[in-house]
Amino acid sequence: MKLLSDRVIWITGASGAIGSAIAERACAEGARVILSGRSLEKLVTLTDLLISKGHAATAIQVDVTDSASIKIAVQQILSEFKRIDCLVNSTSISAFGSFQDLSDETWLEVIDTKILGYMRTMRAVLPQMTSQGSGSIVNISGRSGHQPTTTHLPGACANAAINVLDKGLADAMLDHGVRINTIAPGPIVSARFDKLQSMTASVNGQAVQKFKQTGTPEDVANAAVWLLSDQARHITGTIMSVDGGATATV
Ligand SMILES: NC(=O)c1ccc[n+]([C@@H]2O[C@H](COP(=O)([O-])OP(=O)(O)OC[C@H]3O[C@@H](n4cnc5c(N)ncnc54)[C@H](OP(=O)(O)O)[C@@H]3O)[C@@H](O)[C@H]2O)c1
């Protein structure tokens, strides 16, 4: 039996390193996936690949900073699939740099995309999930929410906020059959992590630091798919680190 047979799963940030790995892994476990991001071209490349492997995949263009775009996406998903079993938020923008160099606009963009973006998609799917009496949400935050990196402070603050948002909302959903969990990845092989490392090295005037505990997008995808599945039925409101032990906090 596959972990996510016939489950309808909406993934935001699905063209990214981690989002696309979650999409592939969810498909391998029998899910029907809806992939979202701003660039339809990137999503269609991915859905074509998944469909060519015999999976059920649909691309829907969504900008998570725009509530109207999210509302339309949810209507589209419901009109095609009649239900939404799972939501994964894996959206981000790169806002790296030294504290003094980051503008108000950059901070606001991170808040709008990550904290409010995750909040908006959850607010949009929860009425359907509560009326179904079931649902599972996984939000990707990040290690920096526990252990901030000085060149990634807007993202670190967003991750900490998501950890709190998820815990509070998970508690509110306890009697509605909806589970909400957070994954906090450590360094993951990706263009995003390379960019952060180069920026950090240039701000500190050092060579690019090598991390011994670097994971892959598939490591995060394995955890996400398991948390979405019924095998994690007794788990909600938790923050799972997927970091090879890299986080130095409890
Ligand atoms: N990579 C790591 O090492 C690492 C470590 C810890 C935590 N994380 C977290 O994991 C998540 C995914 O990271 P990643 O490395 O996969 O990032 P990524 O490769 O940069 O992907 C980001 C995704 O977000 C989408 N996106 C950006 N702005 C959007 C918007 N306004 N509306 C809709 N989609 C939007 C992008 O597609 P479009 O540009 O087409 O919209 C893309 O699909 C992020 O939350 C990140 O902070 C990553």
What does this structure look like?
The protein has 250 residues and is an alpha/beta fold. The protein has a single domain (8-239), classed as 3-Layer(aba) Sandwich (Rossmann fold), CATH 3.40.50. The protein contains 7 helices and 7 strands. The protein has a 7-stranded parallel sheet, with helices on both faces. The longest helix is centred in the middle third of the chain and has 29 residues, at 104-132. The mean pLDDT is 97. NADP nicotinamide-adenine-dinucleotide phosphate is lined by residues 12-19, 37-39, 42, 62-65, 90-93, 113, 140, 142-143, 155, 185, 187-188, 190, 192-193.
What CATH architecture do you see? 3-Layer(aba) Sandwich
Bound molecules: NADP nicotinamide-adenine-dinucleotide phosphate
Order of helices and strands: EHEHEHEHEHEHHE
Give the overall pLDDT as a whole number. Answer: 97
Number of domains: 1
Strand residues, percent? 15-25%
Q: Please summarize the sheet with the most strands.
A: 7 strands, parallel
The CATH superfamily is identified as: NAD(P)-binding Rossmann-like Domain
Number of H/I helices: 7
What integer value in Å does the Rg equal?
A: 17 Å
CATH class, please?
A: Alpha Beta
